[in-house]
Amino acid sequence: MMLDPSATIHPLDQHRDPSSAALVRDLAAEVAARHGGDLSQMRRANGISNATWVGGGIAVRIAHTPVDMAREVALVRALPDAVGHPEILADGTSEGHGWIVTREMHGQNLYEAWPTLSAAERREAIQQLWTRCQLVHEASRTLAAHVSSHGGFVPATLGDATASAERAAVALGLSSARRSRLHDLLADYFRTAPLVEHVVNHGDLALMNALWDGGVVALLDLEFAVRGPVAIDLCRLVCEACVSEEGERVDSEAADAAVEIAARQLDPSHGRVLLHGAAILDQLRDLDIFLACDSAEERAAHWRPARLLIGLLDPDGGYLAPFVR
């Protein structure tokens, strides 16, 4: 295979090794061609851990790193039809990189559509996003065999979470008070999580993982699906609705909808602790991704996940203020 790392670098690949990005692109082109597609005529879709191209009736999604997607494929095929996930046409592995070909669905990525939506449409989108997600939760008994108890932003152990917290504390120069609160919140999460019902969470309930066509018509990309408290999905829903692209807390109909949903769905005894802990884990994962890029262009404290994490450690709870007593 002839790689062309000098080809125009897509913005989604700007922090990746050019040769690795070229390999993934060429592998995706081969997969697309085998299924009647032409990658050069397909558009690149949003996504971070995978690269996705859509067009000509198909969508090709391929892992950036050598990762098998067999577990995700089995999970998707077991999902209730009402979740709306695009039909899987084929799956496989090329040079260790897992890939999935799905049927192209009519609609726009919700993240891309979001700026064009009215306040009422945004509120409706948040409500519908949660309704689709609940279908996954309700099918947990059927889906659980395909899903691990850790993955995505949920580490396997408190020790793993503590190590991530220490990396963040050093990078951000956290005060002793914030560092102590960070460790306390994580310990509270891992202590409390076994005390509540566990469901299969989507694990990455972001706007970019849904399709909009006058309403939310599909959930996408369940690669980070994980068994655990429902707070795992709720913390992402609240963040997506309550935080701007710039990382500022916003007041809006969509934010109100997300807060109302979380208030109804959280465990009455332990929900607030779990929501706060899950939100901390979410931002720690994103901060680790930023740190891996080793960007020297700006101080780590200015990064979006760093600012959100610091807000969560402050007395008012940052974007979780409605839930922090």
Automatic annotation (TrEMBL):
Pfam families cross-referenced by the UniProt entry: APH (PF01636)
InterPro entries referenced in this protein's UniProt entry, alphabetically: AGP_Transferase, Aminoglycoside_PTrfase, Kinase-like_dom_sf
Aminoglycoside phosphotransferase domain segment(s): 58-257
UniProt-listed PANTHER family: AMINOGLYCOSIDE PHOSPHOTRANSFERASE-RELATED-RELATED
Protein known as: Phosphotransferase family protein
